[in-house]
Automatic annotation (TrEMBL):
Residues 5-75 form the HTH merR-type domain. It comes from Trebonia kvetii. This is MerR family transcriptional regulator. CDD domains: HTH_BmrR. InterPro entries: AraC_E-bd, DNA-bd_dom_put_sf, GyrI-like, MerR-type_HTH_dom, MerR_fam, Reg_factor_effector_dom_sf. Transmembrane segments: none annotated. The keyword Coiled coil applies.
Length: 284
C-alpha cells in the first residue's frame, strides 16, 4: 500500500499541533516524522500518524508529561497503555484535591474567619528515640516523610522497644529559609536503665537501615495544635511566631512537630507545633 507523505505544515493543519510542537516532539522522541530529506532536513509525515498526533494533543491537554506520553505510544499492548493513562489520571485527581484545598484555605484567609489556635507554654523533656536524619528539600519532604515513618515503624517492631509518645520531627531554620536542610524524624522510646539487660545502647548507635538511636534534647516551647492538612500549617506557624516575636522570647533551635494521629500525607490529621522559647523571659 502506497504511503501518502505530508509536509510538516500540512500535518500541522490536520492535527492542530503547531510546527514548533511537532519539531519538539521529534527532538524528544515522542513523534518522529515518517521521513526526513537528507539534503534539506525537511520533515514529512504519513497520514497514518494522524491518529497518534491526535492522541498526543489530548494527553497534553490533560497535562501528561512527554515521557509518559512516549510510554503510552510505545506500550506493547492495550493493558499497559491503559495503566499509563490511569496512573496519570490518578495524579490529576490528587492535584485537583490539592487545588481545591488551596482554594478553600485562601477563601478562609480572605474572609478572616480562620480561628486563631490556642497557644500554651511548656517544657518538653529530653527523650531517647529511634531517628532518621537526612538533608531534604522542601518540595520533597512530604513524600520523604512517608517513607521515613514506615521505616521507623518497622524498626520499632524489629527492636521490640516500647514507644514513649507520638512520632516527631525537627525542622531547622534553614529548612524554611533556603528550603533545604537536614530534617530529623524520630520515634520516642522507653529507654532501659544503664546496665540493664535490653538497654538500647549509646547515643548515635546504628539500629537498621537509616535508623539510629539518639537523644532528642528537651526544650521550652510555645505550643499549638494545628488541625488539618500539612499544606496549611503555615497559618499555625504564623500565629505562634507572632506571639513569640511580640514577647521577644524566641531562641535558636529547630522547630519541632509531633503527630499524635500518625502521618497521612493525603489526609487531615493533627500536628502539634512546638516553637523554642525562653520561658523565664515571659512577663509576670
Amino acid at each position: 500500500m502506497a504511503t501518502t507523505l505530508l509536509t510538516i505544515g500540512e500535518f500541522s493543519r490536520m492535527t492542530h499541533l503547531s510546527v514548533k510542537a511537532l519539531r519538539h516532539y521529534h527532538d524528544v522522541g515522542v513523534l518522529a516524522p515518517a521521513a526526513i530529506d537528507p539534503s534539506s532536513g525537511y520533515r514529512s509525515y504519513d497520514t497514518g500518524q494522524v491518529a497518534s498526533a491526535q492522541v498526543i494533543r489530548r494527553l497534553r491537554d490533560l497535562g501528561m508529561p512527554l515521557d509518559s506520553i512516549a510510554a503510552v505510544l510505545s506500550a506493547p499492548d492495550v493493558a499497559q497503555r491503559n495503566r499509563e493513562i490511569a496512573a496519570h489520571l490518578e495524579r490529576m485527581e490528587r492535584q485537583l484535591e490539592e487545588t481545591q484545598a488551596a482554594v478553600s484555605s485562601l477563601r478562609a484567609l480572605l474572609s478572616g474567619v480562620a480561628p486563631r489556635p490556642m497557644i500554651q507554654f511548656r517544657t518538653i523533656p529530653a527523650v531517647t528515640a529511634l531517628a532518621i536524619a537526612e538533608v531534604v528539600r522542601g518540595a520533597e519532604v512530604v513524600a520523604w516523610g512517608a517513607g521515613v515513618f514506615a521505616e521507623l515503624e518497622a524498626a520499632l517492631a524489629a527492636t521490640g522497644l516500647e514507644p514513649a509518645g507520638p512520632f516527631g520531627a525537627l525542622f531547622p531554620g534553614e529548612f524554611f529559609e533556603i528550603t533545604e536542610s537536614e530534617v530529623t524524624v524520630f520515634a520516642p522510646v522507653v529507654a532501659a536503665a544503664p546496665g540493664q539487660q535490653g538497654q538500647p545502647g549509646l547515643q548515635g548507635r546504628h539500629v537498621s537501615g537509616r535508623v539510629h538511636l539518639r537523644e532528642v534534647g528537651g526544650i521550652e516551647a510555645a505550643v499549638a495544635m494545628h488541625p488539618g492538612p500539612a499544606s496549611e500549617t503555615d497559618r499555625t506557624y504564623g500565629a505562634i511566631g507572632t506571639v513569640v516575636a511580640e514577647r521577644a522570647i524566641g531562641v535558636d533551635g529547630p522547630i519541632r512537630e509531633y503527630y499524635p494521629d500518625g502521618f497521612d500525607p493525603a489526609g487531615d490529621y493533627r500536628t502539634e507545633i512546638c516553637w523554642p522559647v525562653f520561658l523565664t523571659g515571659l512577663p509576670g
